Amino acid sequence: MKKSRFIPLILIFCLILMLFCPAALAETTESIDQYSDTHPYVSSKYALVADMDTGRVLYEKGGYEQHPPASITKIMTALLCIEAIERGELNLDDSITAPDDCREGVPDEASTAHIVGGEIMSLEDILYCTLLPSANEACNIIAVLLADSRESFVNMMNERAAQIGCTSTHFSNPNGISNDNHYTTAYDLFLIARECMRHEIFSTIVGTVKHDIPATNKSEARHLTNSNALINVESFYGDHYVYPGCYGVKTGHTELAGYNLVTCVERNGMNLMVVVFGGYAYGTGFSNFTDSVNLYDWAFNEYRSEKLLDKGVVMGTVAIEGSKSGETVELVTMDDVCAACASNMSVSDLQQAVRIFRSSVSAPVEKGAVLGEVSYTDAEGNIFASTPLVAAESVDSRGFSLGSGNGLFSHVWVWIVLIILLLAAGFFGYMYISYKKHNAKLAKRRHGAHEVKKNEKA
């Protein structure tokens, strides 16, 4: 009986704890592709698996809930820098001097490449410092290089995120230092990372395992290694996570954010990205890596790549205005069209849609010019596959030709009148010149005769 008296007290105490811990009451939504028969195991707080080619989400656990990205923030900082390079505003081999306050706002325990104020190194090496060892001070250097201040650069980050399609993201610094106003979602981060991987400079750097930086005016040579344990056997996190086919992208960790990771893997004709937020350390392991491996194993076991169309298949034609010969150009698929399909679905259920951007285009047209798109969707409108439609051959613009086109000068009678007028103008011009020459000869003869008479009288 005495023990039973404590049961209500214990229950009341637990209820009070729950009231003070509302996060414990919150449910993390979880959804899986409707065609999947299985369910992956994920221990981290949030996760997402998506097809990089189409953006189709195969699995998400709290994928649209806000969470601090920690150092994965740095991919947005690098993206803005790389886009400036691609616009010709900067060059990879530019020599950059680190400002004296490059370590301002960076905690002592935060990741660093030990860059100090006044140190000079190439912009390429600064990008490697940003993305491989996740150097916080390197992000501050990039920020003031591209903008008047770090605050202005952060505004650029938020504007670019919105352009990419992020709706639940806000950055407050360029490196991911914890801040209540610094957050994103697994889905938004997928959008950002996918955009980053479309840029060759970015994908090359994040796919690099090791990089050596030569000695500078302030430091001896540095040896950088990638913190992503899915591609680096020498990673700080251990050598047992390496995953075949992984080629990017970035880790992130703070006490508030937990262990975060975004990676991408290409295998068996599929190109997938996994985002994991809010992971934890256990013994000698880290759940962001184990969860990512589990999610990839699940996806590649559950889905297969089905070819729907070959490269080079004719899907339509477009009229060409002003061509030398022929009035149309064929549109063909730019690449093989493949879809990630679960084992319990039939590709025959997918619906093909061909979209030609314009009914006609003006010559010249270069071979490979993108003029349309073909896509495959299910009954709910989810895109399973797509590829651009391109011009199968080059079409030159016509030169000066008679009776072609659809304007005034396409009429033969107009050209006949013009030719007659030109001939008449030529004839009258010839007659006028002949008349002037004849008069000149007569004047010369008269002048000669006048001189003879003048001499006889003398």
Average pLDDT figure: 88
Sheet with the most strands, sense and barrel status? 6 strands, antiparallel
Beta strand count: 20
Structural class: alpha+beta
> Helix proportion of residues, in percent?
25-40%
Shape: elongated
- Element pattern in H and E: HHEEEHEEHHHHHEEEEEEEHEEEEEEEEH
With helices defined by DSSP (H or I, 4 residues minimum), what is the helix count?
Answer: 10
- Terminal CA distance: 168 Å
Query: What Rg is obtained from the alpha carbons, in whole angstroms?
Result: 35 Å
Low-confidence stretches: 14-26, 399-406
Q: What amount of the residues lies in strands?
A: 15-25%
Major sheet: order of its strands?
Answer: 1-3-2-10-9-8
Summarize this structure as a short list of keywords or feature phrases:
458 residues, elongated, 25% strand, alpha+beta
Could you characterize the architecture of this molecule?
- With 458 residues, the chain is of the alpha+beta class.
- It is 33% helix and 25% strand.
- It has helices at 2-20, 22-25, 74-86, 123-131, 136-146, 150-164, 186-197, 200-206, 287-302, 412-457; strands at 30-32, 46-51, 57-61, 95-97, 120-122, 210-213, 222-225, 246-254, 258-267, 270-279, 281-282, 285-286, 303-309, 314-321, 328-333, 337-342, 351-356, 360-362, 370-377, 383-391.
- The strands form six sheets. A six-stranded antiparallel β-sheet has the order 1-3-2-10-9-8, with helices on both faces.
- Helix 3 packs parallel to helix 5 (136-146) and helix 4 (123-131) packs across helix 5 (136-146).
- The longest helix is centred in the C-terminal third of the chain and has 46 residues, at 412-457.
